[in-house]
Amino acid sequence: xxxxxxxxxxxxxxxxxxxxxxxxxxxxxxxxxxxxxxxxxxxxxxxxxxxxxxxxxxxxxxxxxxxxxxxxxxxxxxxxxxxxxxxxxxxxxxxxxxxxxxxxxxxxxxxxxxxxxxxxxxxxxxxxxxxxxxxxxxxxxxxxxxxxxxxxxxxxxxxxxxxxxxxxxxxxxxxxxxxxxxxxxxxxxxxxxxxxxxxxxxxxxxxxxxxxxxxxxxxxxxxxxxxxxxxxxxxxxxxxxxxxxxxxxxxxxxxxxxxxxxxxxxxxxxxxxxxxxxxxxxxxxxxxxxxxxxxxxxx
Length: 299
Description:
Blueprint: E1 3-9, E2 13-16, E3 21-23, E4 26-28, E5 40-44, E6 47-51, H1 67-80, E7 85-94, H2 99-110, E8 113-119, E9 122-135, E10 149-154, E11 159-165, E12 168-175, H3 179-194, H4 200-209, E13 211-213, E14 216-218, H5 222-240, E15 249-252, H6 256-266, E16 270-272, H7 279-292, E17 295-296
Parallel strand pairs: 1-7, 1-17, 7-9, 10-15, 15-16
Antiparallel strand pairs: 1-2, 2-3, 4-6, 5-6, 5-8, 8-9, 10-11, 11-12, 13-14
């Protein structure tokens, strides 16, 4: 049986249904660039890139317009399967608010492709048999067992919402309020307080490991900023969805680990889906199995 892979090319990280994840940054290698040992280098279409380090990343939600989308998705496929030759079906996603406008363009990027590339000088040939594009957040629905629920998917740039009733999608929305926006707010406050030059990427490490000034750890008080950001999201959701009357609310996405406790203050019925960072990628693979009659990551 042919392989299937779901790839969630997020604005912060690119994830696959096989468990692979890489920072969604791409830098083209110049003649005089210094490449560190251990860097993930990629050769594709006559160009060389470094993936997952300092580089270009998406600053809007039009994924089908970004060159990085193709590079990161193909790299994720190549890293998800062993061997030089990979023949697979592919399901990718778009923010639910952009889906109808960009789905055809997204599909054409990967449709009927035979790709030859190198990952750290290892040759890879990828044959993509079939491609499907599916809305983010809606894919998460297939990873839980409640036929009626509201899915809230917090990604890097976007918050995608999908309301289902008896298995049918009733309503959806996308807000440009993802975790990278939140991290930028935290960075701006810390920069002003401590005269630093942090960005959204460095804030992620600081939240996990702490902030040190001249070797001494200082408080960052990120809870107050996170709570205010979540409240903004909640107020927008309340304008569109009757939160009190929705029995089941599921939180997913890479931003869920930061925001869950603050969401639950306003939505006590909310639950976090298992393996929330990979929920869209896993949902894409589940959809692929139903569409193409194949198994995730299997022959």
